[in-house]
Amino acid sequence: MDKNRLLEAEIVSGKRKPSVYASLSEGMSYYEIKKQTELALDVDNMPAIQGLAISNKFAVAEALDSKKGYTLISRRASRGDSSAPELFFMLRTALDDRMKPVFRRLARQVILSTAFGITSQGIRGEVFEQTEYEPGLDEFDIDETLERFLQNRSRILNTEDIVSLERKERTKTAVLIFDTSGSLYGERFTTAALTVAVMAYNLARDNFSVVIFNTKAYTIKRIKERIKTDELVNRILESESAGYTNISEGLRFAGLELDKIKRRNKFGILITDGAFNRGGDPRPYLRYFPKLHVISLPSKHDWGRRVCKDLARLGKGKYSEVSSYKQIPRVLMRLLRET
Questions:
Q1: 216-232, pLDDT tens digit by residue?
Q2: Which residues of 249-284 are buried (b: 16+ CB within 10 A; e: fewer)?
Q3: Helix axis angle, 67-78 relative to 83-91, nearest 10°?
Q4: Does the pTM exceed 0.70?
Q5: Which CATH code is given to the segment(s) 173-338?
């Protein structure tokens, strides 16, 4: 069986990972990959389309520039399927000016709906402040109320004895620092966009900034900037990826943003594997942060994990380690609730 027929058989079976289809299509011509993509469209095999895109994204982009291609992506996006944004990230430099906004909109649709579900429209941390009793306040400090009652040695509980608790929203000032170095095809970049959307929903009424870094750092959202979440996601969808890992510049850019707000409850959340290879040791840049939490990404480098733990310890923050990129948004939510 020749290579084309073998690949056709695998596409029709629909039981392989994208890497398998990428390997089988290696060395095929533009025309062959386009024809194989059209077959994958016919049998609704998204992993095959993703694998073929690794081999030749331009051939795949041309095959998807059709009613059948749009229908497939649109249907998956309406179900909240992450393959829609994953494919957009793979093809975004190959899509023409007519198709790119269409596929970007579908990718954004999935990211925003998924982020909205994770945050439940912005679960926020709350604090309770002791106050004198007033009608309408239904939270009470039982221990303090009892202590006042006993001190007054009265047989009747008076309103002066009651200590109420008034709910206060905790105002936050935060910066998210996301490592986009290395190869950010598909799932990894989708997770970056989803994480930023979760941050935006959760801190919609607060001051927050977003910094991404690879060889260089980029401020995607400034801390005092007011921007709609869909536009913020667009910026991530169009941002630079790959390159080296310059944690120091990412922390420096983030620290400059935090310094613009003069409040106590300020913190950073760094998401990286810790394996820096540009910019030098990032630990001196902790001086910019009253508190720095670290989410450690999967890595083959044990020393990078040690750097992450050190940054969290020295930054007086929490350290979290994920085994899958899909875990990041929910870990971020937990940190935002607890900080």
A1: 999 999 999 998 898 99
A2: bbbbbbbbbbeebeeeebbbbbbbbbbbebbeebee
A3: 130
A4: yes
A5: 3.40.50.410
